[in-house]
Amino acid sequence: MEILVCVKRVPDTAENEFELNAEGNDLDRDDLVYSVNEWDNYAVEEAIRIVDNLGGSITVVTVGDDEAEEVLRREMAMGANNGVLLSDDAFEGSDGRGIATLLKAEVETGNYDLILTGAQADEGAGQVGGMLAAMLDYPYASLVNKIEPGEGKIKVGREIEGGNQEMNEIELPCVLSIQTGINEPRYVGIRGIRKVAGVEIPVKGAGDLGVDAGSVGEAGAKTKRVDYFVPDPGDGAEMLDGDTDEIIEKLIEKLKAKGGL
Amino acid sequence: MSMIITPADYLLFGFFPTVIFSFLLPVIGVGLFTYIIARRIAPLVRANPDYRFDNIPERIKNLIVVWFGQIRQPRYMRAGVLHIIIFAGFLILSIRSTSLVIIGLDDGFIFPGLDGTLGTVYNVMKDYAATAVLAACIIAAYRRGIIRPARYAVPEKYGHDHTAEAVFVLGLIATLMISESMFEASAVAYNYQALGDAHFPAVFSLAWFFSKMLGFASFATLQGLHIIMYYVHDVTFFFFLCFLPLGKHFHVITSIFNVFFMRVKKGNIKPVKYGVSDEQLDDLESFGVKRLEDFTWKHMLDFYSCADCGRCSDQCPANTAGRPLSPRFISIKARDLIFKNYPIKSGVIYTSDKLLVEDIYTEDEIWSCTTCGACEQECPLGIEYIDKMVDLRRGMVDEGMVPQSLQKPLKALEKRGNPYGKMEKKRADWAKEKTFAQTHTVKDLGKDTADTLYFVDSITSYDDNMQDIARRTAIILEKAGMDFGVLGKGEKDSGNEVLRFGEEMLYQELKAQNTEAILESGVKRIVTADPHALNALKNDYTGLPPVKHISEIVAEKIKSGALTMTPCKNRDNVYVYHDPCYLGRHNTIYESPRQALDAIAGLTRVELEKSRDRSFCCGGGGLMLFYEPEEETRMGVIRVNMAADAGANVIVTACPFCLVNIQDAIKVAGKEGEMEALDFTQLIEDHLA
User: Fold this and answer.
1) Residue A226 half-sphere exposure, CB side, CA atoms within 13 Å?
2) Distance between alpha carbon B346 and the CA centroid of its chain, in Å?
3) pLDDT tens digits along B216-255
4) Smallest Cα distance from B613 to chain A, Å
5) Are B411 and A16 inside 8 Å of each other by CB?
6) Rounded average pLDDT over A99-110
7) Which domain holds residue B679?
8) Helix residue ranges, H only, B561-655
9) Residue A38, Cβ neighbours under 10 Å: how many?
């Protein structure tokens, strides 16, 4: 089975302290560390397991700048066979639809049976998977937490509100957005990354993909971020300050005061 | 009347010379033994290299003290004394047994040098040795078969019970002792009756008793006994020799080698592969131990040498806490696999497709080890476990088999140099705390210079509850008049656990960054309050200035008069010092912290039953804080209860990880308010004059 996994480089939520920048329109990105979007690791792991059983190959693709190459290498160290970086100045500022347009163009250059995305990204809106499927006119299943591959068709499971599980048959080729918990992604160490450090990763621009530069990037974006801020605490909401012990103490006091303890 | 006819001259049924047996038995026995040993050596030849021919004087010392001196045996007094008797008896009787084999061919044979007074002394010794060994065997069989101490039990998941083999071997040894004594006694009784020759064996020895018992037996009986007992001894001797390499009694042969080649340095971890430098690591195809032959030959020798005594597992905190790890079975399962893959009979070598952690071990089993070193400290045979655990983990890391709970901190270490994912620039923020900052400043060696580096390490730098250790350490150093500073954002995690959890390349990066920062700072010495950092910098890193733990500095400065202590502020408290594994066992710093505490006048201090090199791990440090083990109880809770039993209400430790674990354990044990945990630096700083 030929599998394409779409991945994204995001600021790591576990290893950063997020603050707004001076202009107040984005995060202060000076001291941020980035990594692969968590959901995407599950998608790649799932792809590896499918290929281990059925054969085939895995390509990982991302849209981003030069630095986005690091997440491709990490996923290749994990076990993906190929990486493709979609990078062009014209792609900058793409909205979800723009990203989906680029990914669609990449899908069409290959012969993929299965396209996986993370269910969402730390910085994203959870829209690319669905849009990509629609643009390709492929069947789509979201929030997939189980995959049972078969001939021409696969069975996918989805977790439904309230803890129920549903199983669906879906025709190939298709797009699936993968939920965390579908597997336990394997560890990638520095050694693994170094092993793939020398592997050539093709970079494709608008021309290579046959995409009209005007339809993507800031120029093609139909949604635009107009503001970025930390919301004021609403009525009844309160932020507790101090170190962990102080916060816990204050919380206990509050719970006691309200009769919760 | 003439003397008794010896096996060398005896004619069976009047025509068949028994000397033929005397010749055939050794030939067959030695031949078979040689073949078996060759098969046993086969996996060692295919194993990974291991450099064990260094530090020869140290190794000879171990041979004298650990092997010949049996120094570790009395740590378990009853079994230890029994073992010492059997061991000493074997050494003494090995000469007798060897000469007996030759006597069957040439009855006049006497070992060179044993024909004069020495021979007379030896004969007395060997008579008593045989007697003592027999008595020890009977007591040992009673212990194994009837009393059955818990540490010998084999939990179902680890396979069958080993009592039968143990008792069988004790039976073999008893047979050797009885037949040897009977052989001698029958000759003595015969010759006394026939010739009035009164060369009786040593008084009250086994042979003496037998000779007295046989005093009135007929010549025919005595002659028959003499011949039968000789061949019973001969057959048992060669059977025993060939039986030894088939099970846990192989240690009778391998122990001398195993002890000679045992670990001579403390606290360090073996390289990924001997002969491959850090710079060449990238060229290695595979890392760590994945399959049997990935172990080093010494580690295989360890498996052969395990006597199944269960002392390691009895001391293992993971085993005690109900984690799925029992070090004894790390050895025994591997030995069983060697025996299976290198069978004696067929001479074929099998290989397994499965990784060891999928076959004989489990992943959780290997992650359960805190590397506290209690098992290695205890093993009378010098068997190692930590390096094997690390090698197996290296293999798992290389295969991507790392629990999710450890992946996050490892990634954070890679990105930020600490397992919490906190910002590098905030590493020295502990020094900015308001009240501390008003009266103290700590130099940043990125900008400033000093003689001494205080290496803080991650937990003390970032954990809100541990930062106090950093501040107290700084105040102590200041009071002691030391010119010191910290690396601030230039400091990375020491990587003590990164290395021990098998993430070699990440450890290499941390080591390289720290080494560069430390050397660039130009300091002459390093001080730390974190024993894990101490261990890594001292035993794993190379080329650094000398490293000391704060407790050593405090003890020295009290002695020199640079620091004086006020009398104890809490006279009602009963303090107990808990030895952190990486301060105590791995770096033999037992006395300094105790001396420092005892310098506080009026402080009441008790000792834990398990202290110093028998200290019980609190639950492990570094990455072990992130690991979610399967366990019945927390090690920390067990430790807190031990302290309560010792009559203490304040547990003093000298390691931030111990403090975290013990503080948590006091809560879990429901002893909050009754007991408290303190760091060494806190107690000392509170009592600085």
Assistant:
1) 2
2) 34
3) 899 999 999 999 999 999 999 999 999 999 999 999 999 9
4) 35
5) no
6) 96
7) 574-686
8) 591-598, 635-645
9) 18
Chain A contacts of B414, Cβ < 8 Å? 190
> Can you tell me the mean pLDDT for B275-296?
95
**Chain B: nearest CA to A98, how far in angstroms?**
30
Which bin fits B225, alpha (ψ -120 to 50), beta or left (φ > 0)? alpha
Give B-chain residues touching A192 at CB under 8 angstroms.
400
- Examine the domain organization and report whether B508 and B615 are in the same domain: no
What is the model's pLDDT at position B19? 93
> Residue B262: CB partners within 8 Å, gap ≥ 6?
B59, B62, B66, B381, B382, B383, B384
Residue A147: strand pairing partners: A156
Shortest Cα distance, chain A CAs vs residue B40, angstroms: 35
B116 is a domain residue: yes
- Which domain CATH number covers B454? 3.40.50.1860
Give how far B490 is from chain A: nearest CA, Å.
15
Among the candidates B518, B553, B588, a domain finishes at B553
Q: How confident is the model at residue B1 (pLDDT cuts 50, 70, 90)?
A: low
Encoding tokens for residue B562? 């640079």
Please tell me whether residues B295 and B422 are part of one structural domain.
Answer: no
**Contact assignment for A243 to B464 by CB distance below 8 Å:** yes
Dihedral pair phi/psi, residue B571, rounded to 5°? -65, -20
B294 Cα to chain A: minimum distance (Å): 19
What residue in A sits closest to B463 (Cα-Cα)? A244
Beta-carbon separation of B423 and A31 below 8 A: yes
Q: Which residues of B touch A27 (CB under 8 A)?
A: none
**CA B53, CA B426: separation in Å to the nearest integer?**
46
Q: In chain B, what residues touch A33 (CB-CB under 8 Å)?
A: 415-416
Q: What is the CATH number of the domain that holds B618?
A: 3.40.50
**Domain count across chain B:** 4
**Which residue carries 């060494």 as its tokens?**
B680
Out of B246, B264, B287, pick the residue that ends a domain. B246
Do B421 and A191 lie within an 8 Å CB cutoff? no
Which residues in chain B (262-321) have CB-CB distances under 8 A to chain A?
Answer: 281-282, 287
**Alpha-carbon span A75 to A201, nearest angstrom:** 12
**Residue B386, both tokens:** 């930590």
In a domain, B264, yes or no: no
In angstroms, the CA B514 to CA B541 distance is 9
Residues B357 and B306 in one domain: yes
B629 and B680 inside one domain: yes
- pLDDT tens digits along A206-242: 999 999 999 999 999 998 888 888 788 788 788 888 8
Average pLDDT over residues B302-324: 97
CB–CB contact A186 B399 (8 Å): yes
With respect to residue B427, please indicate whether it lies within any of the assigned structural domains. Answer: yes
Same domain membership, residue B431 and residue B538: yes
Phi, psi of B103 (to 5 degrees): -55, -30
Domain with B389 in it: what CATH number?
1.10.1060
Provide the 3-class DSSP secondary structure of residue B18. coil
A191 contacts on B by Cβ (under 8 Å)? 281-282, 287, 398, 504-505
Tell whether B465 is within 8 A of chain A (Cβ): yes
Instruction: Kindly state whether residues B492 and B379 are assigned to the same domain.
Output: no
**Which tokens in the block code for residue B252?**
């009778």
pLDDT per position as a tens digit, B484-521:
999 999 999 999 999 999 999 999 999 999 999 999 99
pLDDT of B276 > 70? The answer is yes
- Based on the number of CB atoms within 10 Å of its own CB, is B567 exposed (0-12), middle (13-18) or buried (19 or more)? exposed
Cα dihedral: A171, A177, A179, A182 (round 10): 40
Looking at the structure, tell me whether residues B613 and B540 fall in a common domain: no
B678 domain-assigned: yes
Is residue B112 domain-shared with residue B188, that is, in the same domain?
yes
Closest-approach residue (CA) in chain B for A181 = B404
Mean of pLDDT values over B577-604: 97
